[in-house]
Amino acid sequence: MSDNLMEKVSAFGEKLKIGGTEVGQKISAGVSSMSFKMKEFFQGPNQTEKIVEKTTAETLDEPDWATNLELCDMINHDRINSVELIRGIKKRIMLKNPRVQYLALVLLETVVKNCEKLCSSA
């Protein structure tokens, strides 16, 4: 009976050790993700995000094609970072407003179809 109890205690100890390692890894990943989000929060929107907000504003009745295509031109001529643009579009898609989500998806489709340098720099 004593050996069986020791085996159970040892098995439980191994589970705790493995679980502790996994928890430590998840905490590390969460902290680094949170520090990025905190940095992003305190810095505020950059120029690219401001343009994305303008072209996906909830006050627009329809997509702003001129601004959408201008953004594609800016990416193609390396005036803005495509990674920042995609990050800004993602933020707008994650909002609860369906109008903003729709305009962000239209912008994303426009970028994917019209930007030559998107895949190479993202």
From TrEMBL:
PROSITE patterns: VHS. SUPFAM superfamilies: ENTH/VHS domain. Residues 55-115 form the VHS domain. Pfam families: VHS. Signal peptide: none annotated. InterPro entries: ENTH_VHS, TOL_plant, VHS_dom. Belongs to the TOM1 family. This is Target of Myb protein 1.
